[in-house]
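Appendix C: a fully annotated inverse folding record. The material below is reproduced so that readers can follow the format used throughout the book. The structure is listed first as tokens, followed by the designed sequence.
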């Protein structure tokens, strides 16, 4: 029996032994992660994006949103957290998980169309930035 048989929410693509879970189908992810995700939806209004991820900064190696308007970035994050296309992944940092969402439009300065959110198990948004993929 494979992982996709054990966890019907898995879309079938497992990269580097990472289970992929679409929004509203948590499978093997525990209730604590779901609670943290739900509370992260409520913490967007107090979250402040890192300067290095906003256009116009001197950071050259960081992915940047195509805006430096904090409200616009928060709206992108809110939209991503409400998306039924959100994909949940384990994160390499203990006590957190990743959420990746294809926004269907360019949100990054290099044409990135997806956003990656790093969320703590307590629901606090640690980081968000544009990506091409997970």
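Designed amino acids, in order:
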């Amino acid at each position: 029996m494979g992982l996709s048989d054990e966890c019907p929410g898995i879309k079938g693509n497992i990269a580097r032994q990472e289970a992929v879970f679409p929004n509203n189908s948590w499978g093997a992810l525990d209730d604590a992660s779901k609670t943290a995700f739900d509370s992260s939806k409520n913490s967007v209004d107090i979250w402040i994006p890192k300067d290095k991820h906003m256009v116009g900064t001197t950071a050259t190696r960081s992915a940047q949103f195509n805006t430096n308007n904090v409200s616009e970035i928060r709206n992108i994050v809110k939209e991503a957290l409400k998306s039924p296309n959100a994909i949940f992944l384990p994160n390499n940092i203990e006590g957190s998980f990743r959420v990746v969402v294809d926004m269907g439009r360019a949100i990054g300065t290099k044409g990135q169309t997806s956003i990656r959110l790093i969320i703590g198990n307590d629901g606090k948004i640690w980081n968000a930035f544009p990506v091409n993929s997970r």
